[in-house]
Design brief:
Tyrosyl-Transfer RNA Synthetase, mainly alpha, about 325 residues, 2 domains, binds tryptophanyl-5'AMP, Rossmann fold, two-stranded parallel ribbon
Length: about 325
């Protein structure tokens, strides 16, 4: 049986990349699969989070799921720290994963930066906790943006080593689900950098709660080059900013990049940007408004998270029990 698991960190500034690369796909998958979607608060604290803001940001992730169309009756929505299986399995995986594997993780290198000695141990072990998130449910498929591919390869390595070491078939080898025309949305200010929550410039990203004025201002300022829109997708290869805007348009309109080029080839970005703005406002307006409405009703959001955590525990608890027995712990 197929089961989907994915998560988003509650670190604020949820943006277009999170939506197009991940959350939108979460909504689509729930039609065909059993889906479990998490606000990964334990991952968030691998870098400093203000406690009050963190509480708000956990609710914001849940609100983004709901506002985007994740159905809390069908799918499970919960906060990671409310299900102890994640922490328990992560420790066991810390003893399975090899230092050499973690040393290769590019995201750790990027996030830790030059001052690696000062990074938290949690940031280093981040991918091991991520493997635990997925495998505590024996999930088989994981929808994510392209930047998470390496972490999912590590999840497979951990599953495989656990199964080999203990001579079992406890864990499935997960498949990443990376699909759509915007699996790696780039910064609006710099086409060589990924759009991210932590970029100091607000102009680098469109957030899910941006209104029409903000969306319009940010897209107007978005970097492009002086050339018109080309005819062929190959001609976007050396034009990262142009390629990014065309990709965003394609994803929002549910078209391919080739379709967008067929419609706009020869146009200048000065005429393409207003069309993109209109499309983004049309798609994000209702999501942002619904998120704001939900954020004003934390009682409802908390009840969704509580119900989700209870349902998540029903799936994860027997898996943890099985793993503990396999490892040789005394299970009472
Ligand atoms: P986070 O919060 O950094 O990102 C959440 C999701 O958004 C995708 N994403 C993007 N997609 C396209 N373009 C971008 N610029 C962009 N930026 C982010 C990410 O790929 C991700 O799918 N480590 C995960 C959280 C996590 C997780 C898990 C995911 C923890 N445990 C288990 C899957 C399964 C992360 O990157 O969160």
């Amino acid at each position: 049986m197929s089961r989907i698991f994915s998560g988003v960190q509650p670190t604020g500034n949820l943006h277009l990349g999170n939506y197009l690369g991940a959350i939108r796909n979460f909504v689509r998958l729930q039609e065909d699969y059993e889906c479990i979607y998490c606000a990964v608060d334990m991952h968030a604290i691998t870098v400093w989070q203000d406690p009050e803001e963190l509480r708000g940001n956990i609710r914001e992730v849940a609100a983004a799921y709901l506002a985007s169309g994740v159905d809390p009756k069908k799918s499970i929505i919960f906060a990671q720290s409310n299900v102890s299986a994640h922490a328990e399995l992560a420790w066991i995986f810390n003893c399975v994963a090899r230092l050499g594997w973690l040393n290769r993780m590019t995201q750790f290198k990027e996030k830790a930066g030059k001052n690696r000695e000062n990074a938290s141990l949690g940031l280093y072990a981040y991918p091991s906790l991520m493997a635990a998130d997925i495998l505590a449910y024996k999930a088989t498929h994981v929808p994510v943006g392209e930047d998470q591919k390496q972490h999912l390869e590590l999840t497979r390595d951990i599953a495989q080593k656990f199964n080999n070491d203990y001579g079992t078939e406890t864990f499935p080898l997960v498949e990443p689900l990376i699909f759509g025309e915007a699996t790696r949305v780039m910064s609006l200010r710099d086409g060589s950098k990924k759009m991210s929550k932590s970029d100091p410039s607000d102009y680098s990203r469109i957030t899910l709660t941006d209104g029409p004025d903000e969306i319009s201002k940010k897209l107007k300022k978005a970097r492009t080059d002086a050339e018109p829109i080309p005819e062929k997708v190959e001609d976007l290869a050396e034009r990262p900013e142009a390629s990014n805007l065309v990709g965003i348009y394609a994803a929002l309109a549910d078209m391919t990049k080739a379709d967008v080029l067929a419609e706009y080839a020869g146009s200048q970005f000065s005429s393409f940007k207003p069309a993109l703005t209109e499309l983004a406002v049309e798609k994000f307006g209702p999501i942002g408004a619904e998120m704001k409405r939900l954020m004003a009703d934390p009682g409802y959001v908390d009840s969704v998270l509580k119900d989700g955590a209870e349902r998540a525990r029903v799936i994860a608890d027997p898996v943890i029990r099985e793993v503990k027995e396999t490892v040789g712990f005394l299970v009472s």
